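Recap for those who missed Tuesday's class. We walked through two folding examples back to back. For each one, the amino acid string is listed first and its predicted structure tokens come directly after. Nothing is annotated here on purpose, so try labeling regions yourself before you check the end of the notes.
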Amino acid sequence: MKIVILGTGYPYRGGLATFNERLARQFQSEGNEVELWTFTLQYPSFLFPGKTQYSTEQAPEGVFIRRCLNSCNPFNWLHVGRQLRKAAPDLVICCYWMAFFAPLYGTICRIAKRNGKTRCIALVHNMFPHEKTVLDKLFAPYFVRSQDAFVALSDAVVCDIHTLTQAPATFSPHPIYDHYGARMSKEEACEALGLETGRQYMLFFGLVRAYKGLDLLLDALALVKDELPELRLLVAGEFYEDEDKYRRQIADNGLTDKVVLRNEFIPDGDLRKYFGAADLVVQPYKNATQSGVTQVAFHFEKPMLVTNVGGLGEIVHHGKMGYAVEPAPQAIADALRDYFTNNRQVAFTDYLRQEKSKYNWDKMTQAFYNV
């Protein structure tokens, strides 16, 4: 087929760009002709809370990326829609994660489909965002009505989609990010990151936002700090809210020597260092749908502690590859105590290796073919 993916791609950074580029490669490997159409303007700078939207790494090889989407210019939407209508791809995949982009996608797809050939399928990371806005009710239905079908990354998102439409929607779990290189030994990774060797490290990875529950994890660490004196928390990711708030919580809980903060965006080339240093990957989210961090942990075969919200508990089998607990400090602390006191790492890692094959990228492309 001729496929056009609409969404984030290089030179933009982050998990969504990584996902779209890897999905394009998978479709190409199956004999399809694929282009990724990304943004000339993704977010106006005043709406972007981070330091930069752009990657500092090399462009991905083997993926045709065209910059043509402007999220704020309706004339651009009309122009791109007409270009798609004329190009007549068999399939347009809209990578959707927040209502801000609904008018752009909805307009482009309505125009493109007038050729009588092109079908539009939404790849939905979140139907409704973790931090809700008034735009969700205003814009999301407009986007939904422009799509022929939906592929979602969790059952929870499928349910959200079905509150807006009864069009076909299927669940396909987030595939494993498998392009970050081989595992690093813990000793090598700690040395590369300037961390103390001989400690136990749990890793909180990714952008720090309120819904991700770092405050819950800090309170949990305070509960077990005396029982697990070698345990350290490594926080690796750019803060999208007040870092001082967390520093005060760290000081108040007597955790100053037990928490390492790396307030910066972690480039793809450094992921193997952070996951190599980790004994346990922790995602104490207060609400969620799914998370790419989980699939990076799968790739590096690292046991996980997640909270049982959204689709996280569907992926992390409690007591087998990690823990899926309630989003509360005591529940998180109990899991930490069990993991590090009873040396669960070897058994959990063995189970992880058996489960990895369920999350290959061909399962994701097959979901699009099927729907």
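Example two. Treat it independently of the first, because the proteins are unrelated.
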Amino acid sequence: MADKKTVKKDTKKDSKKVKNAWLKYAAKDLKALNSLCDEYRDFISVCKTERECVDEIVAMAEKQGYKNLYEVKKVKAGDKLYAVNKGKAVVLFVVGTEPLEKGMKILGAHIDSPRLDIKQNPLYEDTELAFLDTHYYGGIKKYQWVTIPMAIHGVVCKKDGSVVKVVIGEDDKDPVVGISDLLIHLAQDQMDKKAAKVIEGEDLNVLVGSMPLKDEEKDAVKANVMKLIADKYDIEEADFMSAELEVVPAGRARDYGIDRSMIMGYGQDDRICAFTSAKAIFNCSSIDRTAACILVDKEEIGSVGATGMTSAFFENIIAELLDKMGAYSELAVRRALQNSHMLSSDVNAAFDPNFPSVMERKNCAYFGRGMAFSKFTGSRGKSGSNDANPEFIAKLRAALDKHEVSYQMAELGKVDQGGGGTIAYIMAKYNMEVIDSGVALHNMHAPWEVASKADIYETEKGYEAFLKEI
């Protein structure tokens, strides 16, 4: 049993963890924090789709000396490698000195975000206005996505095999598009509806034009819009059938707050954890057990599909890695996965005093208190959750304290209020140790989400501590 002095000392040390992280920063810390957050703000300003995130992460990796795993014949300790899955997911590795069978230290985040997807037969005209028909992706409050400037990002794949990249609405000289709403003067019936029905999913039609093409007799406005698109991108209307176009908020991420202590931007769930995870592994050079950073697609719709976490991509990549090490066997793959430790890097909800009733104050995340850990996610009775083992949490606490990382433990709302999930439970099926961790947000799943710069900085430091110590 600990003596009274030890207990008093430990209690005092633990009490410091609830204080705002800003209070501990010296000038050098603030310089490092601002440098990281400036880079992050630029990252989410240009990376608004999964493909854009993968392209940017690969470019960053190659500058750090990473090589394409598929192009390497042999793998040895110290190698830095990446592998891309269908342009929408990527894995980064720093190969350790110990055999891969001893497990890995894995950071896993997702790079898809709620948005509006353009349908495969989208362009139509109604009362001399041209629209694009959409299908929303992920959990959104539909009413939040109207009357704001929107941009179109994505790719169009043509029958000849060429891929055309499309970005409309981000350059200052570009037009923007958007979705109209009913004027308040005529909205009596609309205002009586429940929030879920104020804007219906099939009414999320993006207005893209009102000017008719001269001498065109039928659907002249639609014809004019299609002509402009064809002239710029050399595509035809039928090419929409093999396109992947996403409608997202237009504009760059911005510093938020008069004190510039926060960042407002689109897609911070979960690109904020993807960016900090990637930065952490880039800062990892020599290492004992192999480090991995998984950035995947489709989490917002259940991690399904070939580019989601439920696909066999990561498992197959481990087999490839072992093969290039000259150590492949089915048993080696199983051991490598089972002996791994993972941080499922995903966001949490920060306490908002405008909406206090949904949070349990002793067990929720707060802005400025650092990296947020969730022992479990799920909803109500922990349904659909990974529930992390306390032995693993204790190791993490020791690692974070050693590197003076501010962190907090948090649940996503009150017990019966709702909940959410991540990719943690999917990786836990391999019998590895997994816990959820990341940055807490305001406005999660809204077009513009808000994060604390201090929490971004502490989370990146926390990911580094995990890679160094676990």
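Answers for example two:
The radius of gyration is 24 Å.
The first helix runs from residue 4 to 15.
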